[in-house]
Design a protein that fits this description.
This protein has helices at 24-37, 78-97, 100-115, 119-130, 134-161, 192-204, 218-230, 245-254, 267-279, 308-320, 337-353, 372-387, 420-423, 441-451, 465-474, 513-518, and strands at residues 41-43, 45-47, 50-52, 57-62, 65-74, 170-177, 182-186, 208-212, 238-240, 258-264, 289-293, 298-302, 330-336, 391-395, 399-400, 406-407, 410-414, 430-436, 454-455, 457-461, 481-484, 501-502, 521-528. It is α/β, with parallel strands linked by helices. The chain folds into two domains: 27-294 and 505-526, Aldehyde Dehydrogenase, Chain A, domain 1 (3-Layer(aba) Sandwich); 298-484, Aldehyde Dehydrogenase, Chain A, domain 2. The protein has a seven-stranded mixed β-sheet with strand order 14-17-18-13-12-20-21, with helices on both faces. It has a five-stranded parallel β-sheet with strand order 9-8-7-10-11, with helices on both faces. This is L-glutamate gamma-semialdehyde dehydrogenase. One of its GO terms (biological process) is L-proline catabolic process to L-glutamate. Pathway: Amino-acid degradation; L-proline degradation into L-glutamate; L-glutamate from L-proline: step 2/2.
Length: 543
C-alpha cells in the first residue's frame, strides 16, 4: 500500500512557442499541417473504451475552406447516450475510490503527452478544424490545456489537505467524495482546452463523465479522447458521444444518475438545459451540481487620460483575435470624444496591415469564423448597422463565404449607447464604439454597467489612478475578470481564474480551486476517541 502523504509543487505555465520565421517549431508545425490536411479521419463514438460507429454520420470541414473534408464522424442516438451513462456509472466506483494521486498521475501523463509527442498534431488539428492561426492555437491547445491539467493536480492537493480542526479527544476529518452520479460535459468549439477541462477537472476529483463535444470541434476533441486513453484513463471514466444536442440532452437530463452539468457555450443553451434539469428534480438521487460559463458582451472603457495607442492595440487584439470568437472578446467600447480621432487613426493603420485567409499561411492574422450559421448571424448585425441612421461602419463591414467563412474585422460607431450591437452578443470580429462627452465619465460608467445582461470581462484604460478606482467600483459586478490597462482577453490558468456572473454564468472560476471543489460531495467524519459514558452535564447539579 502506498501510504505517502503527497502534495504537488506549484507548476509553472507551459511555455508558449512563438513559431517565428526560421524556427524549428514552425517547420515542424507546417509539416504536420500538410500531413493532417491530406488525411480524412473516421471518428467514432467512444463508450466504455470501445469505438462505436452508428452509421448516422456528419462531416467535419475546414471553416476557411469548407469544401475540404477533414473527417466523417458518427452521431449518437438515444440508445448510445444511455450506453454512455451506463458505462460511466459502471466505472464510477473504481475510479472514485482510486487514491487521488493515482488519478493525478493520469492527468500529468496526458499533459506530458500533449507537451511532447502530440503537441504539433494537436495544434494542427485545432488550426485546421477550428480555423485558428498558429499563435491562437498554441495558447489554447496545447498550452492552456496542459496548464489546466497540471494545475488541477496542484489545486486538488490543496483541497484534500484542507481539513477541520480537532479538539482534544476528537478526531475530525473531511472526505471529499466524488458526486453520486455522472457529470454531463457539454463543451464549446472555441477552446479545445476548455473541452478537456470540462471533463478532466471533474475526473481529477473522482468523477465520471458523459461528453458531448461541439460539432465544430470534433476533430481536435477526438484526438484528445485518444490521448486520454493512451495516458491510461480507465474505460468509462470519460465517454465521447458526438451528436445532436437536443437528443443527448433529453436522455441525460432524464437520467436518475445525473450528478453534475459542466458547460461552456451560449446563455440560451445553458438556460434550456437548466430548465430541463429543474423539471426533473424529483427524479435525481442528488441535486445536480450546475457549473456554466456562458455569453459575454465585454467592454473596453477609456478615460481621457489613457494613451491612444494602448487603447487601439487593445481594440484590435481584444476584438479581432480568433475572429472575436472568444467568450472574453471585446465587443463594445466607450471612448471619450477627445481621444476618438487618434484612436480611430491608429486602429485604421493596424487594420490596413492585417491579412485574412487560410491558417496555413502564417502571415494571416485573421482566419474564418466557425461555420455558415455563425457567418450569417455576424453579417446580419453588420447589415443592420449599415441600414441604421444611428450607426456607421468605420472599418470593415464585408464578408465572403464562397470558399471559407470570412468576415472582415469590423468597427461600428453608434450614437445610441443602447444600439443593438452594443447590447447583444455577436461572437464575431465586430466591435461597436460609443463616443462619450469627456465630462460624462462617471455617468457613462453607470451606463456601461446597465447596458448588457452579461458580466464576463471588461477593461479600463487610464493613467489617472482616481479614474481607475472609480471604474473599479462602479463596474464591480459588470465583469468577473476585470483588466486595468489591458485588453479583456487572454486569461492565463492560475494567474487569472476565469468566469463571470449575471447572464455570463455561475462564476466558478475555471483554472482555480473553486471549480474543483464544485465537483466534490463532502462528508465530515467525527470520531470520539473515548466516548462519554454518562448522559449528564454539569448544569444538572443541585447547587
Amino acid at each position: 500500500m502506498d501510504n505517502a502523504i503527497f502534495s504537488f509543487p506549484k507548476p509553472i505555465n507551459e511555455p508558449v512557442k512563438a513559431y517565428a520565421p526560421g524556427s524549428s517549431e514552425k517547420s515542424s508545425l507546417k509539416k504536420t499541417l500538410t500531413q493532417l490536411s491530406s488525411e480524412e479521419w473516421d471518428i467514432p463514438l467512444v463508450i466504455g473504451g470501445k469505438e462505436i460507429r452508428t452509421g448516422n454520420t456528419g462531416k467535419v470541414v475546414m471553416p476557411h475552406d469548407h469544401h475540404h473534408v477533414l473527417a466523417t464522424y458518427h452521431k449518437a442516438g438515444e440508445k448510445e447516450v444511455q450506453m454512455a451513462i451506463d458505462a460511466a456509472m459502471k466505472a464510477h466506483k473504481d475510479w472514485s475510490e482510486l487514491p487521488w494521486v493515482e488519478r493525478a498521475s493520469v492527468m500529468l501523463r496526458v499533459a506530458e503527452l500533449l507537451s511532447t509527442k502530440y503537441r504539433y498534431l494537436l495544434n494542427a488539428s485545432v488550426m485546421l478544424g477550428q480555423s485558428k492561426n498558429p499563435f491562437q492555437a498554441e495558447i489554447d491547445a496545447p498550452c492552456e490545456l496542459i496548464d489546466f491539467l497540471r494545475f488541477s493536480t496542484f489545486y486538488a492537493s490543496q483541497v484534500y489537505a484542507d481539513q477541520p480542526y480537532s479538539e482534544t479527544g476528537i478526531l475530525n476529518r473531511m472526505e471529499y467524495r466524488a458526486l453520486e452520479g455522472f457529470v454531463f460535459s457539454l463543451t464549446p468549439f472555441n477552446f479545445t482546452s476548455i473541452a478537456s477541462n470540462l471533463n478532466m477537472a471533474p475526473a481529477m476529483m473522482g468523477n465520471v463523465a458523459v461528453w458531448k463535444p461541439s460539432t465544430t470541434a470534433i476533430h481536435s476533441n477526438y484526438l484528445l479522447m485518444k490521448v486520454f486513453q493512451e495516458a491510461g484513463l480507465p474505460d468509462g471514466v470519460v465517454n465521447f458521444i458526438p451528436g445532436q444536442g437536443s437528443v443527448i440532452g433529453k436522455v441525460v437530463t432524464a437520467s436518475r444518475d445525473l450528478g453534475g452539468f459542466h458547460f461552456t457555450g451560449s446563455t440560451s443553451t445553458f438556460n434550456t438545459l437548466w430548465r430541463q434539469i429543474g423539471e426533473n428534480l424529483g427524479n435525481y438521487k442528488s441535486y445536480p451540481k450546475i457549473v456554466g460559463e456562458t455569453g459575454g458582451k465585454n467592454f473596453i472603457f477609456v478615460h481621457p487620460s489613457a494613451p491612444a495607442l494602448d487603447v487601439a492595440t487593445a481594440i484590435v487584439r481584444g476584438a479581432f483575435e480568433y475572429q472575436g470568437q472568444k467568450c472574453s472578446a471585446g465587443s463594445r467600447a466607450y471612448i471619450p470624444a477627445s481621444l476618438w480621432k487618434e484612436v480611430k487613426d491608429y486602429v485604421g493603420d493596424m487594420l490596413k496591415e492585417i491579412k485574412m485567409g487560410d491558417v496555413q499561411d502564417f502571415t494571416n492574422f485573421i482566419n474564418a469564423v466557425i461555420d455558415e450559421a455563425s457567418f450569417d448571424n455576424i453579417m446580419s448585425y453588420i447589415n443592420y448597422a449599415k441600414q441604421s441612421p444611428d450607426a456607421e461602419i468605420v472599418f470593415g463591414g464585408n464578408g465572403d463565404k464562397s470558399v471559407g467563412y470570412f468576415v472582415e474585422p469590423t468597427v461600428i460607431q453608434t450614437t445610441d449607447p443602447m444600439f443593438k450591437s452594443m447590447v447583444e452578443e455577436i461572437f464575431g470580429p465586430v466591435i461597436t464604439i460609443y463616443v462619450y462627452d469627456d465630462a460624462k465619465y462617471e455617468e457613462t460608467l453607470e451606463l456601461c454597467d446597465r447596458t448588457s445582461p452579461y458580466g464576463l470581462t471588461g477593461s479600463i484604460f487610464a493613467r489617472d489612478r482616481y479614474a481607475i478606482d472609480m471604474a473599479f467600483n462602479k463596474l464591480r459586478y459588470a465583469a468577473g475578470n476585470f483588466y486595468i490597462n489591458d485588453k479583456p482577453t487572454g486569461a492565463v490558468i492560475a494567474q487569472q481564474p476565469f468566469g463571470g456572473s449575471r447572464a455570463s454564468g455561475t462564476n466558478d472560476k475555471a483554472g482555480g480551486p473553486l471549480n474543483l471543489i464544485r465537483w466534490t460531495n463532502a462528508r465530515c467524519i467525527k470520531e470520539a476517541l473515548v466516548p462519554p459514558t454518562s448522559y449528564g452535564y454539569p448544569f444538572l447539579g443541585e447547587k
